[in-house]
Specification:
single chain, about 240 residues, alpha+beta, two-stranded antiparallel ribbon, about 5% strand
């Protein structure tokens, strides 16, 4: 390739947090502007590589990391307003009550008025009239996630249709949790469960039984050893991996 990255035969990336619409992507060292919604475009790149870019004689590793759903949440135009009439259920710990903050440090209550809190000046008080700003924020988040789910479905559909899913392990996860009103926050960067726990789903028909659950604690450091184990590869001693399969 024109500008290979260590460990990758083909790559596409964007600067910083990227843009939701009409992004500039760096593809193997060449910058190019694309028209459309970023989640769709990144998925298009992944599917194109799966179909025509990889060496079909060799095993492959595809890493697809989306901009969505980073703040400010911006759904695809086709999903804008999709959940405009949906009920927003606020978590119990979101209420600004003495009961909620009785056992918490002072900074927890104060943080709800910071840029990471539901009462900060950017969105205004979360009970604004006529439309509460928190409800708008939550619905936009859901509409943005909908586009993400839709595109993940495109990847899984292709793996099934091409029968690649019979020899492929798919892992879906996030780099962090996220609070949507819990403790008066909408963000990450703290040690509450909603912030530090992440989803971890695996799909491998014939290898993982449908509905199977792993009860033990799993951490992100366990992902690489698991992938190597499934591929039948022994981790090099120099890797110094702390996790386990």
């Amino acid at each position: 390739q024109d500008d290979p990255r260590p460990g990758f035969d083909h790559w596409a990336s964007f600067k910083g947090q990227g843009d939701y619409f009409d992004p500039v992507l760096n593809v193997n060292g060449t910058r190019k502007q694309f028209q459309g919604y970023t989640t769709d475009i990144l998925t298009d790149h992944a599917l194109e590589w799966l179909r025509t870019g990889r060496d079909e004689r060799r095993p492959f590793f595809l890493y697809l990391s989306h901009k969505a759903v980073h703040y400010p949440f911006q759904p695809a135009k086709r999903h804008q307003g999709r959940y405009a009439q949906s009920e927003v259920r606020r978590p119990n710990t979101m209420a600004n009550t003495e009961e909620n903050y009785l056992t918490q440090s002072h900074w927890v209550r104060e943080r709800r008025y910071s840029i990471h809190g539901v009462d900060h000046m950017e969105t205004g008080p979360y009970d604004n009239d006529p439309v509460p700003s928190f409800d708008q924020l939550y619905r936009q988040y859901c509409e943005t996630v909908h586009g993400l789910d839709e595109n993940l479905g495109r990847i899984l559909d292709y793996l099934d249709e091409s029968r690649l899913s019979q020899s492929t392990l798919v892992i879906y996860m996030s780099d962090n949790g996220f609070e949507l009103g819990e403790h008066g926050f909408y963000d990450k960067r703290d040690a509450f469960e909603e912030s530090i726990r992440i989803p971890a789903l695996a799909y491998a028909p014939g290898m993982i039984a449908a509905g199977a659950r792993v009860a033990q604690m799993v951490q992100n450091i366990d992902i690489a050893p698991t992938l190597l184990d499934v591929a039948g590869i022994r981790a090099p001693k120099s890797a110094q991996m702390d996790g386990q399969s």
